[in-house]
Amino acid sequence: MDRIVLGGSDGAIEGLAMTAALNGAGLGFGTIAVAGFAFAVAGAISMFFSNYLSLRSELRSLKIDMARERMEIETEPGEEEAEMRDLLKKEGYEQGEVDVIMNRLVKNKDLWLKEMLRRELRVNPEDAAADPFVWPTFAGIAFLLLALLAVSPYAFAFPRTDALTASVGLSLTALFALGSRAFVPRNFEPKAGLESALVGAVAGAFLYVIGLLISTV
After folding, report:
1. Which residues contact residue 39 at a Cβ distance below 8 angstroms, ignoring those fewer than 6 apart?
2. Of 129, 150, 173, which one is at a domain's C-terminal end?
3. Residues 150 and 48 grouped into a single domain
4. What are the C-alpha distances in Å from 166 to residues 150, 151, 169, 203?
């Protein structure tokens, strides 16, 4: 989910900033629409590959960590048990509780491995089975859609100021929804949404001013 939010937020911010700059520079709506579409597609492709390469690297590291921890459990069970006991005590478990947990873990090495990865390395072993194409694809699509959202007003015969206003309004609304996790009610954080929208507003305003300055040259 974080990759989708990141992809969508980048698309909204960058799409808004680019179209605002072109609007401020006085370019025609047709030029802005074509440039915006090309930017959205190129950005989506870049977002996909950057996420794919990053996730593939993360999965490789996770699998290496899993193999190492599994080997240590097999070859050095005493040291691994002592380490696990120490981790449990640091989390607040009493000695009796630690003994009960360890009695179960030493009988189930797969469960022991999962707990070592979660508690020592802070990773989720289930992630090792993730498809490295799925989330990067969603991130790329999110970038594409949100970038196109910023461009969409320029596909209509609006006055220049109205097109800018519509682009800003759509983009900032999307940024607020993504940043606040409005689509996940239990994780709703309005402050984070406002911060995300503020970043978009600042980027759009700055590039619009840059465009105005360019138009005077």
Report:
1. 14, 15, 18, 147, 151
2. 129
3. yes
4. 8, 10, 5, 16
Q: Are 163 and 154 in contact (CB under 8 A)?
A: yes
Residue 96 domain boundaries: 59-129
Instruction: Report residue 25: phi and psi, to 5°.
Output: -80, -5
Q: Which two tokens stand for residue 19?
A: 């179209």
Q: How many domains does the chain have?
A: 2
Per-residue pLDDT tens for 33-85? 999 999 999 999 999 999 999 988 988 888 888 888 889 888 888 888 898 88
Separation CA 112–CA 102 (nearest Å): 8
CB 10 within 8 A of CB 143: yes
Are 50 and 70 in the same domain?
no
Q: What is the pTM assigned to this prediction?
A: 0.79
Q: Go through 166-198 and write b for each residue having 16 or more CB atoms within 10 A of its CB, e for each that does not.
A: bbbebbbbbbbbbbbbeeeeeeeeeebbeebbe
Which residues neighbour 129 within 8 Å (Cβ) at sequence distance 6 or greater?
none
147 and 196 share a domain? yes
